[in-house]
C-alpha cells in the first residue's frame, strides 16, 4: 500500500471477507465536529458503527450545527472527560464495543483510562503508538513510532515498539518491513548519545533473530533513512538506506515532532493508533481533521480484522 486511501479500501474489503459484523466504536468525548463527521463517514463506508459518549446536549448541538447525521448512533450522556474515557474503555473490555476512540479529550486523560489494568485495556504487553503518513515526497507509506505514549523508551521497550510497528506494517501488506532506528548521526556514541548504542544493539538483535520478520538497522540519521542523495553522498551502506518503511524515534518528543512536522509542514495525510492493548485504540490529536480521524478508524479496523482481536 502506498496511500491512506488504500488503507480504507483494504479495511472495508478485509472486514467484508472476514464475515464479521461492523465493529462498534466507543468514542469518548465525542462532542466535536471532526469526530462526529469521521464516525458518520465510517458508518457510510461500512467500516463501523458507533457509541457516542459525552455531553449529550453538546453532541446533538454540534451534529446539528455541522449538519452531521448521527441518528443511527447511541449516545451515552457523560459530561466528565475522564468518566467518558473510562466508559469507552469499559465498553470495549466488556465486549459491548470493539474499538475505543479518543474524541475531544486530552490524551493524558484518555490514556489513563486505557492503560489501567483494572477496568482498562492493559493486557501487560507494551502499548505503543504508531503513526502512518502518506507524503508526496516519499514513494510509500511511512510508519513512525512512538510519538504519543512512551516518553523515553528503554532498550526493552524499544523492542516492543518495533514489534508493534512491524506487526502493523505486515497487516498492511509489507512482508519484511525495513526499520530505521533513528538518531542524529550514524556513529555509536554511548556516552553522549545513548540512543545510538540502543540502535546498534537492536540491529544486532535483529541479525541474530531476536527481533523477527523485519530488517533493522541503526543508528541512522533521518536523511539517510529516507533520502537517496543523502545516503549516497554519505556513503551509507545499509539495506535500509533511503528505503525505510518504519522510523523508530529515540523519544516521544522526536516522534511527536517528526509526525506532526510531516503532517502540517509537508501537507501529508496520516493516521494513528495504539497497539498492544486489548484492542487497537483510535488515537488522534484533538486538532486532527475528520479525514485523519477516518483514516485512523480504517487503520484500526484493518488491524482488528487481521489480528483477530
UniProtKB/TrEMBL annotation:
The keyword Transferase applies. One of its GO terms (molecular function) is phosphate acetyltransferase activity. It is an enzyme of class 2 (transferase). Keywords: Acyltransferase, Transferase. Gene3D superfamilies: Isopropylmalate Dehydrogenase (3.40.718.10). SUPFAM superfamilies: Isocitrate/Isopropylmalate dehydrogenase-like. Its EC number is 2.3.1.8. InterPro entries: P_Ac_Bu_trans, Phos_Acetyltrans/Butyryltrans, PTA_PTB. It comes from the Bacteria. The keyword Cell membrane does not apply. Residues 83-301 form the Phosphate acetyl/butaryl transferase domain. Belongs to the phosphate acetyltransferase and butyryltransferase family. This is Phosphate acetyltransferase.
